[in-house]
Amino acid sequence: MHNVDVLGRVKREIASQLAPQLGVQVERLIAVMEYPPRDQIGDLAIPLPALGVKGQVSLTLNSSYVRSYSQDGPFLNVKLREDAIFREIFSSIGEDYGLDKVERPMRIVVEHTSANPIHPLHIGHLRNAIIGDALVRLTRARGHAVTARFYVNDSGRQVAILIYGLSKLGYPDPPAGEKKDQWAGVIYAMTNIILEIRAISEELKGTTEEEYREKVTKRDELVALAAEIRSRNPPFFDRIAEGIKNEEDPEAKIAEIIRKYEEGDPETRKIVRKYVDMVLDGFRESLGKLRTEFDHFDYESDLLWSGEVRSILRNALSSQARIEYKGTQALDLNRYMDEETRRELRIPEGLEIPPLVLMRADGTTLYTLRDIAYTIRKFVSPKADLVINVIAEQQTVPQIQLRAALYILGYPDLARNLIHYSYSMVTLQGMKMSGRLGRYISLDEVYERVRQAVLEKMKEKGDGEGVDKIVNGAIRYAILSVSADKPITFNIGRVTNFEENSGPYLQYTYVRAYNILSKYGGRIDVNGVSYEDLVNEKRKLLFIIAKFPETFRNAADNLEPELLTSYLRQLSDVFNVWYDKERVIQEPDEGKRMTRLNLVKGVETVLRNGLKVLGIDSLTKM
RNA sequence: GGACCCGUAGCUCAGCCAGGACAGAGCGUAGGCCUUCGGAGCCUAUGGUCCCGGGUUCGAAUCCCGGCGGGUCCGCCA
Fold first, then answer.
1. pLDDT tens digit string along A421-472?
2. Residue A382's CB: how many other CB atoms inside 10 A?
3. In the record, what terms sit under GO molecular function (predicted)?
4. What ipTM was reported for this prediction?
C-alpha cells in the first residue's frame, strides 16, 4: 500500500520499451541499469555493450517519466522528469516508506553472540552482537519471520573449569553490587591460568633442552599474567591456587564435572546452572544497553539430557563414513562427497576437511557433535527455512565440518540452508584478547567510555536527552560501517568521534529534519508545489530518497547492513549541504516552501526507517 | 606446508561478490563561515603506482593466473 518503489517502476517501464528494440530480456536490461557517476550525465544509464549491443543505435523511448535520452559512447543515458518522480513518491509516502516486504516470507533463525558463559562479553562479542542484531532487524523488516537465538555453551570444558575454581572457594555468591559476569570472569581466568601453569610445569619434566627453554619462557609469561589477575582478588586467587596445589589430578576432577553434568547428575546440574544463569544475567544486562534481545536462550546441556545428541551420535557411529582416528571414533568428511556437493555446501576445493571426532575417549561429547544436534533443532523447532550463524572467522573449518557432517548424516537440505556469517577479529592495539587469560576490554567498559564522551559533548552543548541512544548509535555505526570480514583494531577514539561519518551525525541530521517539520506543524502534500525548485541538492535529495526502497532490499536480501550505513551517510551529507544554503519554513514563496517541506519529510522518513532497521534510535533533540 | 580472509589518500574505511564514464567519505593538516529552521553543521585547500606482475575484455580497483605483505585456522578446546 504505502510501499512505493517509484524508481523500480520507472526502470521497468523504460526496460519494457527498450528490451524488444535491443532484443534482450526486460529483466536483464533492468539488471544492467546503473546510476551515472555525475548528475550532468543523467539519472539512469544503460551500458549497451553489456547487452551485446555495439556501436550507435537508434532507439525510441516514450514515457511520462523520461525527459530526454541520448547515447554517449557505449552508454544510453536517460534524464528523468523530477516532477513526475516527486509527485509519485510524495503523494503516497507513508510511515513505512521503503521497507518493502518480500512476496514469500521465510522463517529465518539468526544465532549470534553465543559467548561462553564464563566471563563478561568483550569487544569481540560486541561485533558479533551488533552484526547479528542488525541482521535480525533487517530480515524482520523485510517481512521474514525471524527468531534470534543464543546458544549457551554450558557443557564444555570452559564451564567445568569455572565450576572447578568455584568449588575451591566453596561456591560463593557474588557480592551485592558487583556485576555477576565480571565476577565470574575473574574466577575463571584465575583457575584457568593456575591450571595452565601447572600443566606446563609438568611438561617441563621430560623435555629436550630446546623445548625446555621455549616452555620456560611461556611459563614465565603465564606467571606474569597470573600476578596481574591475582591483584583483582588476592584471597580468591590464593585459595584457588592452594586448592589446586593439593589436588592429586585436577584434570580428572574437571573431567568428572563434565561427565556428571552431561549425565544430568542433580547436584551438578543445580550448581552449574546457578552460575551459568548468573553470567547470562550479566550478558542480558550488557546487551540490553545495546538494544539487543533474544527470543531463545538454548542450553547445550538440554540437548544432551533430551537425548538429541545421543541420537546423532548413534546415527554417526553407524554411518559408512565412520573411521578410527587417533584412537577415537570419527567421521571421514572427505570421502563421501563429490565435487558438486562440496560446491553446493560452499566448501573450498582444495580443503582437506579434518575428520570430525565424535567423542572423547572417556565417552563425553565434543562441541561440534553437539552443534550438529543444535543445528537440527534450529531447523526443526520451530521450523526454519534458513539458519544464519554469526560466528567468528576462526570457526570457519568447524562450520564446514558441521555442514559436511549434516550432509553425510542425511540432512543435505539443512547443510545447504545453513549460512556461516563470518566476521573477523577485533584486536586491541595489536594485542589479541583472551578470555581464557582474563585479558580483554569488556563490552561494559567500552559502553561506559563512549558514554563519558557523549556526556562530555552534551555538557558543551548544554541541552540534550537520550544519552544512551546516542551511545548505542555511536557504537553500532562504528561496527556496522566496516565490512564484517575485515579485521578491526579497536580504537576508542574513533568510536567517540561524533563528527561526520558517525552514528550521532546521522542522529543529528534526523533532529534537524524532525525539528523543521515539528516547527511547521501544518499539512504537507503535493498540491501547489513548485517543481522548478527541484534543482541542485534538492533534485539530488529527491533521487536519493527514491533509491531507498532498492537500497533497503539489497541490504536485507544480501545481508549487508553496511550498504545502508553508507547510503544514510550520503543522504545526510546532501541534506546538510542544502540545509546550510536555503530555508524551508522561512521561505516566502508558498510553492517552494511546500516542495521543500516534502523533501524534508522524505529525509525524515528515510532516516527514521533506515536507522531503525540498523537498531539505531532516532532522537527529536540531542 | 595446506586452506580461508584482508591489502584503496599520512591514518580509519566505502566501492569489489552481479566489470562501465575524470576512484568516494571521514580523520589529520592549512584557512574561512555563528542577524535567519540546532555549528555533532557548512565552505575552500591538501592529499591516490586502487600491494606487484601477467591475462581476459570495447572497458579492470572490481574477473582469472602467479607473486609479495598482514591476519586466521589446521586440538579427544569452543
1. 999 988 876 566 777 777 788 999 999 999 999 998 888 776 557 899 999 9
2. 13
3. arginine-tRNA ligase activity; ATP binding
4. 0.95
